[in-house]
Amino acid sequence: MKKDPCILAIESSCDDTSAAVYRGAQLLSHVISSQDMHALTGGVIPEVASRAHQESILPVVDAAVRDSGLTISDLDAIAYTKGPGLLGALIVGVSFAKTLALSLDIPCIAVHHMQAHILSNFIESPVPDFPFLNLTVSGGHTELVIVHDHLTMQRIGRTLDDAAGEAFDKIGKMMGLDYPAGPQMDRIALGGKAIYAFTEPDIADLDFSFSGLKTSVMRFLKRQIDQDPSFINDHLADLCASVQERICTILMHKTEKAMRQHELRHVALAGGVSANSRLRQLLVERAQAHGWTYYYPALSYCTDNAAMIGITAYYKYLRGEFAEITDTPDPRLAW
């Protein structure tokens, strides 16, 4: 195997079409096309997303290759997101990658989307030491994973219902925020205080649950609105700060518990919600209090992106882990 292979990576699991080019572990280029139309419908419509991927993938890949300073003939492999994700969206990326790889007579590398989120911490320095605990938080997943090496990971906790990102979006919708609500709530919360105490669910072991919090907030808002119809508008900043504080403390309490149980000293964040400013602040505070070493990716690598697919593909390339041409996307791809 070449020590510094040139790899084109494609990500199309949900509503972002992205491509990146690597030489070895060095990111040469990275392009993302986001589908803003989903804000109008309050969520991602799978059929609309897949059609948008079809329109975007060729210009996105073309831009990534051009920006890298390489040509298509320089590529040694093409990586793609196999799953989990939306089936139609995945099909677009997988089909494009396999067709291009066949035409160039080079191998494909299938990448697990959640594994790639974790390895986003290896795109730029400093990188985590092994073993480390990773808290992955996104719109569809909330997981605690022990990372033994680049490709050996052990999930020790997961959400039993809604993911943390889902909780932000659904509660934000109750308060009149547009989709996706998480980033808006983060910004608005900066002007408020966490004065409303929402109960933390009592969930055994290292698993998470956010459905109870969603119900608790819904009932609280209904009671307040019955008394004062303008309650949300008048107290939006404090509401955002309070909801954000509870979601983030739930995440951090489980992280602390996992670190103690497994006697780990290194901890990292990954996933779209890892961009949340309060979650990052809490991680830093708890790490300093316990003497942990902490990591989180740059904001541009928190949401879905091809850079994380490419760095994962690099380590798979070094191990010779290539996909068969008959490989198919799996929207529910397991660990």
Describe the protein:
The chain has helices spanning 46-68, 87-104, 113-119, 164-174, 181-189, 211-227, 231-234, 236-261, 277-290, 306-318; strands spanning 6-11, 16-23, 26-34, 77-83, 108-112, 132-137, 142-149, 152-158, 266-270, 293-295. Helices cover 42% and strands 19% of the residues. The model has no long low-confidence stretch (mean pLDDT 95). It has 335 residues and is an alpha/beta fold.
Can you describe this structure in just a few lines?
Helices cover 42% and strands 19% of the residues. By secondary structure, the protein is of the alpha/beta class. It has 2 domains: 6-119 and 302-318, ATPase, nucleotide binding domain (Nucleotidyltransferase, domain 5, 2-Layer Sandwich); 128-296, 2-Layer Sandwich (Nucleotidyltransferase, domain 5), CATH 3.30.420.
Round the mean pLDDT to the nearest integer and report it: 95
Query: In angstroms, what separates the terminal alpha carbons?
Result: 26 Å
Total helical elements: 10
User: Outline, from the CA principal axes?
Assistant: globular
- The parts where pLDDT drops under 50 for at least 5 residues are none
CATH superfamily of the largest domain: ATPase, nucleotide binding domain
Number of domains: 2
**What is the CATH first-level class name of the largest domain?**
Alpha Beta
Order of helices and strands: EEEHEHEHEEEHHHHHEHEH
